[in-house]
Amino acid sequence: MGDITRNISRYEMECECGCGFNTCDKVLADSLQLIVDHFTVVYEAQGKVYLEITGPNRCLFHNEQVQASYFLSKGKLYKPYSSKSTHIYGIAADFKLYIKLHSGKRVLIPAVEVFAYMDNTWPDTFGMGIYYNRCHLDVRLEKSRWNG
User: Which DSSP string do the residues of 42-94 spell out, in sequence order?
Assistant: First the structure.
């Protein structure tokens, strides 16, 4: 049970460094809830759908650490404070969706399936990224898409 929407709680959106930054844009929260609601209907016969926020809000300091680490993992150089990350504005989240099957086993809903739903739902707006096993959604006004 969430305190922002049915499935999203403010603590899930808090910066992971412990600084306490946990702003959550209402459009972002409502959009994430819409995604959960959609996949709950799609997979209701198999089990319960859960949202796991893997990349919540970030303070500027923590965002620098995340960005530098990401670029380093790709063998690229990162220029400090060059990130235009929407996570620092409280309008973005990286997430995974799981189904807890009736057997108790947890199964990941494929990120490509989640990304396709988002892109079909908001074809002309928002920022959306797809990574190996998770998606990114931000509620910027202009359309942006990427494969990370």
Answer: HTTTTEEEEEEEEE----HHHHHHHHHHHHHHTT----TT----GGGGT-EEE
Q: Is residue 135 in a domain?
A: yes
In the chain, the number of structural domains is 1
Print the domain residue range for 121: 10-147
Q: Could you identify the residue written with the tokens 């399936």?
A: 113
The model's pTM is 0.92
Tell me what percent of the residues of the chain surpass a pLDDT of 90. Answer: 89
> Which H or E run contains 35?
helix 26-42
End-to-end CA separation in angstroms for the chain: 31
Q: Is 29 helix (H, G, I), strand (E, B) or coil?
A: helix
Tokens, residue 2: 């969430």
Predicted local distance difference test score (pLDDT) of residue 83: 86
3 pLDDT exceeds 90? no
* CATH code, domain with 102: 3.30.1380
